[in-house]
Design goal:
InterPro entries: MBL_superfamily_lactonases (IPR051013), Metallo-B-lactamas (IPR001279), RibonucZ/Hydroxyglut_hydro (IPR036866). By secondary structure, the protein is an alpha/beta fold. It is about 30% helix and about 25% strand. The longest helix has 17 residues, at about 255-270.
């Protein structure tokens, strides 16, 4: 059973959202593969999740980063290849449930979980939130379900990470009300009103995967935030037009769509200096926002 979206209650994006970026482990990979002109040395790529606090719905999550479930799922071959190719580290104190506890929340407090895409480094902790509605683009779910075990692994999917209740918890983002985006977001023209009150707008960011989702909202500090997941891996690469190399692009669902989305993000970033654009694996963004939160 797939859940339906909430009926619209006004779409002004006037409801402000509490926002905290959390690092939930990291992987290491040569920078020269992740972006053209990058260093040959391995660099850390943090797995970033976001704690969102809605004035009515309470704490919500955008992605989960890594968890112990990832290591269990990649214990045997062929899945073990995943962490051999991109070595993963989850340090003590980085577990998402532990970090939520530091903010005063338990896993059962999470009623909404927005998933950018179903790659393992974004959903490894998805099973820890039994009361959450899980919002995913339909194309993303279908892509994972179509993939064979090896085909899914090659694309970054580990189906065993999905909880048994996944279908019962699932809400297709595409079923939420479709809304026009402001001119400042062009060439992105539409999104989805995820909660029916205009507070969170899901923006399709295809290419990296078939149904990748970004999230647009305004914070309690009156900052506009655009969570862009893996549509780019760092703001430096985006600003300097350094897309991933051919090797990295072999993992993408559609290279042309990826480059189109990448170019669109460049336009938005150049137009809106005040916009806080947050890629899910950008080390400099993590350092900046974690310093601001201290």
């Amino acid at each position: 059973m797939v859940r339906r979206c909430r009926a619209p209650q006004g779409r002004s994006m006037s409801t402000e959202i509490g926002f905290r970026l959390l690092k939930v482990g990291h992987c290491s990979h040569p920078e020269c593969i992740a972006q053209r002109g990058g260093r040959f040395t391995a660099v850390p790529f943090p797995a970033l999740a976001c704690l969102l606090i809605h004035p009515r719905h309470g704490p919500m999550l955008f992605d989960t980063g890594y968890s112990d479930a990832f290591f269990a799922a990649t214990q045997r071959f062929p899945e073990r290849l995943y962490r051999l190719v991109t070595p993963v580290s989850l340090n003590p104190g980085e577990s998402l449930t532990m970090q939520l506890g530091l903010h005063g929340f338990a896993p059962d407090d999470i009623k909404h979980l927005f998933v950018s895409h179903l790659h393992a480094d974004h959903i490894a902790g998805i099973g820890d939130y039994p009361r959450a509605k899980i919002f995913v683009m339909r194309a993303e779910v279908e892509a994972m379900r179509r993939a064979s075990r090896m085909g899914g692994l090659r694309r970054g999917y580990l189906r065993m990470l999905l909880p048994d209740r996944f279908d019962m918890s699932l809400t297709y983002v595409d079923d939420c009300p479709r809304v026009a985006l402001p001119d400042s977001m062009r060439p992105f023209r539409y999104g989805f009103d995820l909660l029916g009150d205009g507070s969170l707008t899901g923006v399709p960011l295809p290419g990296h995967t078939a149904g990748q989702l970004g999230l647009l909202f305004k914070t309690t500090e009156a900052r506009t935030v655009f969570l862009v997941a893996d549509a780019c891996w760092s703001l430096d690469a985006l600003r300097h037009d350094r897309a991933p190399t051919w090797i990295a692009s072999q993992l993408f669902a559609d290279k042309r769509e990826y480059l189109s989305t990448f170019a669109a993000l460049r336009q938005v970033l150049a137009r809106q200096e005040s916009l806080m654009m947050v890629p899910s694996h950008c080390e400099s963004t993590w350092k900046q926002l974690s310093d601001e939160a201290r």
